[in-house]
Every structure is written in structure tokens, then in C-alpha cells.
Amino acid sequence: GIYLPVGLEKAAYNDGRTPIWNAEGCTTADIVYDDLRTTNGWDSSYKIDFSDPCAQKYIDSQARMFADWGYDFLKLDGVGPGSFKSGDNYDNVADVAAWQKAIATAGRPIHLELSWSLDYGHVEDWKKYSNGWRIDTDVECYCNTLVGWENSVDDRWDDAPAWTDHAGPGGWNDLDSLNVGNGEMDGLTNAERQSYATLWAIAKSPLYTGDDLTRLDSYGLSLLTNREVIAINQSSAPPAEPVTASDPQQVWAAKNPDGTYTVALFNLADAPASVTADWSTLGFQGKASVRDVWNREKLGTYRDRITQALPAHGSRLFTVTSHGTDLEWTGYEAEAGTLSGNASTAGCSACSDGRKVGNLYGGGKLTLDNVVVHKAGTYQVKVSYISGDARSALVSANDGGATSHKFASTGDWGTVNVVHVPVKLKAGANTITIDSGSDGYAPDIDRIDVQK
To answer: Which residues contact 142 (CB under 8 A, 6 or more apart)?
Structure first.
């Protein structure tokens, strides 16, 4: 592969006299703006003016050269909107489109990867013109180790969910390099290394390591070469996404084409904790067989759920095969509830009934009455929500105490995501309340669903 910042690098300009290869009559003066405006995340290049046909010919010449050299991977870096830059000078959508066009005629397939912290508002452009896009900043910490858990590795659990539905064949969410090959070099515990590798695998992120390949330790080598984990990453199943709220203990899952489920349990807390994957969050109840993917071990059959004790920042990765029955659900539209404080209804084209409840801040509250279940117990209640940033809400039932749950960003204020939160209900009619708290901001709510 080869690395290239977007734009025309300043050193190549040469007062506009440098000729463009394979583009007769074209020079570097023809392909940039007269005022030599700069672009990319470091302003290290001149912005290319694609109104001049010579600009596309320049990109064509580079793509042809890379193909002739035998490259099959191009990382185009500093791309905007993103890379912590915005504005017209840093809008490089035209550059990306030009690269896609050039690669198509270069005579060799070249994977086009975009970097970094790409703007979610342009996700359709990244999907249209590239094969992968960095959703976040560098995973490296630029400290005395290669990475650090709290320097940016753990950010991915918050940032990936908004992008999940946009990944698929031809284009993938890039979480950055997988640096788990040497614990001393990486600055991570073994538990953190496994969690890091687990999220990258189930999110279908491209897998490439930034470790020194001559210094891989035995545990790192086992992580990087586990065929079952790699198979999950490379399978035709969709990327996993959270099925629970983004609390310190989380469950992510994806349904596989053969009907099984890929299920990951994460304890992101700084202390050991138990994490439970409830089969109802996968849509069924009853028995299921469980295989431990990392350890290549069949764990047997579990009814309704599996609970694991995990170390700080630890994880488990399972393949779950249902032998139970599908659940049926009863839906309760948010706009049919009782609103208090600042809460109000608004139109929502993505919502199930075209409406949502928003303005849940500063004591704003949504209360849903007559939520009926046939027997008492703790239910995994589906919450369909919209939130342009990560927000928390207090969830309670009847006269019970409220529990705060964190809801990951859905990317914008027009996209609905679904997670489950545990709520203790009594047999018969119940009241469920979603409260912003006195000084908090909660996500907008589309609806909730409770199993029959």
C-alpha cells in the first residue's frame, strides 16, 4: 500500500512549472487555485481545482503510476470535511470522487481508504466514492507506548454505533490500526488487547496492525491469527451493534446468515464486573447453545441468558445458536405518553408513527402508562431513540428508583437506533418513565417495545 495526503503537496508545485505526467499541456499551475489556498488536516497541500480538466488528468496519472508500481491499497489522509477541519477549503469530496474515477481506469484494483475522523454528515459521499473511511481520530496515543486504553481505544465503543448501519460490502467503517501484538509495546493489559481485537472484528473494521512484526509476543500472535475471529470479521454478516445501552457493561450482537448470532460482552469499567447477554435482546427466549470464539470451546446450553464475570476492560466473544422461540412485542408510541417539563412532540420521518418526543432536558419527562405484562420480572425493554450526540436518561417503572443509562449517538437527529434497557415490571399494568433529570439532556424517543 501507499500513503498520500489529499491535495497537491506544496513541494510538488514548483511555481506551477511541473508538468503533469500523461497529460500533455498540463502543469501544476493548471490544477490548483490561483490564490494557492491550502487543504487537508495539516494545510500541507494546495487545494485542487477540479473545474480544470487537467486536475482529473493529474489524479489519473497518479492512480496509473500506483497501479504500475503494483500497489493495491491507497490511504488518502487528511480528508475533509473531517480531520478536524471544515469549510470550503477542506471539502475534499471532489478529490475522493476523482480518485475513485481514476482508480477505475488505472488497470489494477486499488482499495481506497479515507482518513481521518470523517464527517458523519458526508457518510453517503464516503460510501459512494471509497472502500473505507476512518470514523475517529488516531488510535495511537503518541506517548511512551503505541496506544493507551483511555487515550482513544475506548472511544470507539461510543463512536462506532452511529456508523454501523452504513458499513457493508464495498465500504467499511475503519476504526484504525489493531495494535495488540505486543503488550509491552502497546501499553495494554491482555484483557484490553482482547476487547480491542473483539470490537474491531465484530465491527467489520479493516484489520491491519501497527505493531513491530518482529516483536510480536505469543498472546498478541494468538489474537492476530485466531481464524474464527478473523472469519467473523470477514463473513457476510452485518457488523455487530449494541443491543444494550452504552453503559459500562455492554452487549453487542449481529445475526448471521445461518441464523446464529455473534454476541460480544464488554466490561468497560475500571473494575471487574459481571455482564449478562439476555436472549430477549436477540429476539428469542428459551435455550441456546454457546461457543466461546476466542478459546474455540463449546460452553454448552444456557436458558434465556448467559452471565460472565469479566475483568476490568474485559470481554468475551460468543457464537450463540438459538433453540428457543421468537419473541412477540407490544409497542408504545412516545407521543401517546404523558409529557412534563420541557418535553414536546415533533415530526420524525424515520420514526415508526412519524412522530417523536424531544426537548427532554432540564427535568423534561416522558411517562408511558398501561404497559402490560403477564408476569412480574425484569424485562429488556426496547427503546427506539434519536440523538445527534451521546446522552443519558433516567429510566424507571412504577414507584421504583430510576437507573441512568447512556445512549450512544445515532449520528444525527434524523436516524433511529434501538437498544434494550432492563426494567423491573409487575404483573398487569405498569408505568414506565424516561426522565432527563434536573440538569441533563436525554435523547429524543420514538417508542418503546415490551415483550408479550
So the answer is: none
Look up cell 454448552; give the residue.
300
Q: Which residues contact 411 (CB under 8 A, 6 or more apart)?
A: 120, 123, 162, 163, 388
- Kindly report the CA angle at 79 between 147 and 12, in degrees rounded to 5? 105
Mean pLDDT of 203-217: 96
Does pLDDT of 152 surpass 90? Answer: no
- Amino acid, res. 361: Y
DSSP at 336: G
Read off the C-alpha cell for 277: 447477554
pLDDT of residue 399: 85
Distance (Å, whole) CA 42 – CA 147 = 22
The total of other beta-carbon atoms located within 10 Å of residue 53's CB is: 12
Domains within the chain, CATH numbers bracketed: 2-234 (3.20.20.70), 241-326 (2.60.40.1180), 329-451 (2.60.120.260)
DSSP-derived secondary structure for 149-162: IIIIITTHHHHSGG
Q: What is the dihedral of CA 299, 301, 304, 309, to 10 degrees?
A: -20
Average pLDDT, the chain: 97
Phi, psi dihedral angles at 161 (to 5 degrees): -55, -35
Cell 487545494 belongs to residue: 47
Q: How confident is the model at residue 299 (pLDDT cuts 50, 70, 90)?
A: very high
What is the C-alpha separation between 277 and 252, in angstroms, rounded?
Answer: 9
Buried b (16+ CB within 10 A) or exposed e, 79-118: bbbbbebeeebbbbbbbbbbbbebbeebeeebebbbbbbb
Cβ-based neighbour number of residue 235 at 10 Å: 14
Cα separation, 245 vs 406, whole angstroms: 6
- Percent of residues in the chain assigned helix, strand, coil, to nearest 5: 25, 35, 40
Q: Is the pLDDT of residue 129 over 90?
A: yes
Give the residue from 293, 346, 288 showing the smallest Cα distance to 322.
288
Provide the strand spans (E) within 193-349.
Answer: 241-242, 249-255, 261-267, 273-278, 284-285, 287-292, 297-303, 305-310, 314-322, 325-326, 329-333, 338-340, 344-347
Question: Residues near 335 by Cβ (< 8 Å), separated by ≥ 6?
Answer: 345, 353, 355, 356, 357
pLDDT of 151 > 90? The answer is: no
